[in-house]
Design goal:
Length: 109
């Protein structure tokens, strides 16, 4: 009986070690702005309706939803806006009107 309980316990513990891991997101795009601020961004899903953005070395992750806009693709939440215009972007705070970066672009490797 003790062998049976030990076998069951080991089976349960080994099953717990094989958790299904979430599919990794795409690689981060690292862009440098005229202000030398670093902006890290990537699409958040295949539908193109949201992006994930981090500004600078901060750990704050913003998931921005696509909004109607006249110039480029505008993504925003209640704190941050990211305007993607082809091969460059702008990043700014919504409430404080603080511009974190203009003319943000991928740097040649």
């Amino acid at each position: 009986m003790a062998k049976y309980l030990l076998l069951m316990t080991l089976s349960l513990l080994s099953a717990c070690s094989f958790e299904i891991q979430p599919e990794p997101q795409g690689a981060w795009n690292e862009w440098i702005c005229d202000s030398q601020a670093k902006v890290y961004w990537r699409p958040d899903g295949a539908d193109g309706q949201s992006v994930q953005v981090r500004v600078g070395a901060g750990d704050m992750l913003h998931v921005l939803k696509r909004m109607p806009g006249d110039n480029g693709e505008l993504y925003s939440d209640s704190e941050l806006a990211f305007v993607l215009q082809g091969d460059h972007a702008e990043v700014y705070a919504i409430n404080g009107h603080t511009i974190f970066g203009r003319n943000c672009k991928a740097q040649p490797e």
